[in-house]
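Section 5: illustrative case.
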């Protein structure tokens, strides 16, 4: 069995050396080491070549994560590989990773694709802990047949089945390509498996601002493919209620994890603002999101949240607003603002609901924004 391990990568120089070292220590070496360089501006290519990896490149008219994955598939096919396994540029495989992969695929010819068990190395800060809880990339300690997502950070496929399925959807440039492919394989009747012995350690570090942005990037494509961004009316009927329903579920979960509460309170506002910016851009206009920030401050103050928290929340939302063009654009339509206010009023708990919010704020005050 010939196995290709590949890394689709843009600007991964800060973490790639440890990943390369871990792959070099494998008890069973991959038959092909492939890095797909997606327009990197750092030392990614030089590091890969020095480590003995073959480097291929995306192009100006064909780039992004899915395109990079498909380029790897084509190259591995030409090289005669049977299985192709992807790693993220910040995903460090355990020493037996490739050996376990080869053993599993040899023992289970009925399985078309797998993913492994990626755990976070860094969970000390509230942001990293929030990611480890709400954006985890594993399914626990037990095997799972036909999981709904084969996480791209550790997904491996029988190459011919992946090629016959059409590869990855190249319209999905940064996220959701793994979920879309998984669902397509399941609909086609293929058998998939989560294999917890395929162990990986994740090197990612986050701040409140970066984890909020990443969460939106993760979950927006599914709503987009479902048509929830067709226009503002559809968004108000479909996507906007989901945002507050999702928030309400996390509010319940955070009772037992007080360090996560501050980031959770910022989550729905970040989602709403980024969504409205996206909708306005697709309509050929721009929108000033200042009033959304003001409503967030007003409602949290009315629910008993003090200045320390509301100042922190304002800073997070002003950061989002800056990423969405600052104050440039038309005022938000009063009807849209009223809908946002109504949902938020029903969803935001009283300050007393989170008895340990001060602990969360204390932890956040010692970390980067």
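Designed sequence:
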């Amino acid at each position: 069995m010939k196995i290709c391990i590949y890394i689709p990568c843009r600007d991964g120089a800060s973490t790639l050396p440890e990943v390369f070292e871990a792959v070099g220590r494998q008890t069973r070496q991959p038959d092909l080491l492939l890095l797909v360089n997606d327009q990197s501006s750092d030392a990614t290519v030089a590091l890969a070549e020095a480590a003995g990896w073959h480097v291929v490149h995306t192009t100006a008219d064909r780039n992004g994560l899915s395109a990079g994955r498909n380029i790897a598939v084509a190259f591995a096919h030409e090289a005669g590989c049977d299985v192709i396994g992807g790693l993220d540029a910040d995903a460090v495989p355990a020493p037996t990773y490739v050996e376990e992969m080869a053993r599993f695929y040899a023992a289970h010819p009925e399985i078309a694709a797998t993913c492994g068990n990626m755990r976070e190395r860094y969970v000390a800060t509230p942001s990293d802990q929030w990611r480890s809880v709400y954006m985890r990339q594993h399914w626990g300690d037990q095997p799972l047949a036909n999981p709904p997502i084969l996480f791209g950070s550790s997904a491996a496929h029988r190459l011919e089945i992946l090629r016959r399925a059409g590869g990855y959807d190249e319209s999905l440039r940064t996220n959701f390509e793994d979920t879309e492919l998984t669902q397509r394989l399941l609909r086609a009747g293929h058998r998939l498996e989560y294999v917890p012995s395929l162990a990986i350690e994740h090197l990612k570090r986050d701040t409140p601002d970066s984890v909020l942005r990443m969460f939106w990037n993760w979950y927006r494509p599914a709503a987009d493919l479902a048509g929830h961004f067709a226009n503002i009316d559809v968004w108000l009927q479909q996507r906007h209620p989901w945002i507050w329903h999702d928030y309400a579920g996390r509010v319940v979960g955070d009772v037992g994890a007080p360090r996560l509460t501050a980031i959770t309170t910022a989550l729905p506002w970040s989602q709403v603002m980024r969504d409205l910016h996206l909708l306005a851009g697709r309509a050929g206009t721009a929108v000033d999101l200042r009033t959304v920030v003001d409503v967030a401050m007003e409602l949290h103050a009315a629910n008993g949240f003090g200045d320390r928290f509301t100042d922190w929340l304002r800073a997070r939302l002003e950061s989002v607003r800056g990423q969405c063009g600052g104050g440039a654009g038309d005022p938000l339509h009063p009807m849209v603002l009223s809908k946002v206010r109504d949902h938020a009023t029903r969803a935001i708990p009283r300050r007393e609901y989170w008895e340990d919010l001060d602990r969360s704020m204390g932890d956040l005050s010692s970390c980067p924004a």
